[in-house]
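pinging the channel bc i need a second pair of eyes. not urgent but kinda urgent?? the chain im working w is below, pasted from the shared doc
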Amino acid sequence: MSLPPDFLDRIRQALPLSQVIARRTKLVRKGRELTGLCPFHNEKSPSFWVNDDKGAYYCFGCQAKGDLISFVQETERLSFMEAVERLAGEAGLEVPVASEAERRSAEVRVGIYEALEAACAFYERELHAGTPAAAAARDYLNRRGLPPATQSRFRLGYAPAGRNALREALGKRNMGAELLVEAGLLGQPDDGGAPYDYFRDRITFPIRDRKERVIAFGARALGDAKPKYLNSPESDLFHKRETLYNEGPARTAAREGATLVAVEGYMDVIALTQAGFAAAVAPLGTALTETQITLLWRTAPEPVLAFDGDAAGRNAAWKAVDRVLPLLRPGHSLRFAFLPGGLDPDDLIRAQGPGAFGSVLEAALPLSEVLWSREVEAADISTPERKAAFASRLDEVLRTIADPDIRRLYQEEFGRRRRDLFSPRDDRRWGGPSARAGGAMGRGDGRRWGSGQPAYATGGAGAGLKASSIGQGEASPLREQLLILAMVNHPKLLASLHEEIAELPLASVELDKLRCEILTVAADGGDLDTDALRRHLIASSVGSILARLDGNRTLRAHWWAMPSAALIDAEQGWRHVLGRQRRVIDLKAEVERATVMLEQDTSDENFQRFLALTREMAAAEGDEAAIEGFGIASGRGPSL
């Protein structure tokens, strides 16, 4: 229904946003804003901010954002009008009366919901009926490893083979054929004949919205009927390209800390949930759409897409890459997991157990790695002309990224990789043949699809910027110095990066002391102004550490960490360098594991993996020029 233009403003004036949010999480005032633990995801340090003047909230951790109405919609799983009615009642306001047409439309929707719920209950009963067909359906589900408890959890059912079983059953509840056709439960012949049951002799999978209301069905044929899987037709309630199977329970699980993962079909979702991966969803018979990607991001900023490791899985991954590039925004991307041996998640779990799928999720590759690997594998750079064609193709792909900052960062990163690819390192220096691609933007195991060989072995390019002395006798990587200096020069980073800063892995004991002092100032409610923070640090026990950090002229070349840089540039630079720092730590652990494996088994496979990891480790540790995308080589910011 339509509302008067000022009605929502009257609700917001009567109910401050912080008052409503405070029912869900404790808020503490910080200047003109309030902050607290995010009600949308588990966190230990507050990253959720509320501004009553603007009537808006934002979480720097999970990127949840909105206003009074959307907060009530999300937390209480209400429709827009249901949220408005709830809040209007609290504010003592009467919701304007709907028009006659709006009332009729609302009544029809209520009737469709009721019909779909009744059909779901009918199919559930039929699954447990004493007929041979129902027994065959139960046998199929049992063979697929779905016990009665799982069947009940997902409300699985069976649609009888007759043309009129559902129609007759719901007709006894005064649900007419016209309503059932509109609900997608009956089909209407083109010749105007009598409507018939849309699903016949099929196992039914209810498709529910975020409020757990049935809005459609998917159904699998038990016999030879085509197609094997059939969805309800499109309706006012159901648009398959805008819906994810199991979205409601997955959102709840993801907010409790589970990894959000998108798989291909219903059975994969059910198998994963049964195995403990409760934040699993699936599109409905189509490749992942732009709307579905946006739905995923409403739950988690970097969901994982799981694909079979065969050619079909790779092709599906390529489509997802092209689809997501124009949609990218800061903090939001996709990760890609490829299953071994052409298995789907259901097959993998049944063959090797939940731990095998957990390992697949841990090895998920960032979007940048998948995109780079795709382009490199398809390229022929054997001549200057072909190199130019490859470079042109990369530029064309990256231009599809709409966000200018993300596009620039990809162009800088891929430009560096391209230089490495065209001018490989001296094999004698790196202990083996140079690979086709260089570097790593984010975490990934760097293996070519299906080949079992490393996709890159050399890491970043350029002369390394060596570690500089911070403490007496202590060498600290340039990365760590930049991360801490940027925090001092841009203390507002604490608002958006508090958890990352608190958990920042630092090898330097003295830099760790400086970091802890900064966090203490923030925790005590200290001023996040740069000058005030510096005065405090200089007067404290870490003043000499800060002085040595300020005196390192090498750091001044990295403009994004300097006070004159914009906050958004400082945050992007900080996140980039943090990724490099984490990558080094991950590589150290991988090298240690590879060393142990090689000591236990001196096979060629273990030896080649050890060589590849040590080369990559040498590149990551000894060549810190990889962070120059935000500093000397970027061409942005002041020249210091």
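so The domain at 247-363 is CATH 3.40.1360.10 (Dna Topoisomerase Vi A Subunit; Chain: A, domain 2). and The CA atoms of residues 538 and 544 lie 7 Å apart. — does that match what u expected or am i reading it wrong
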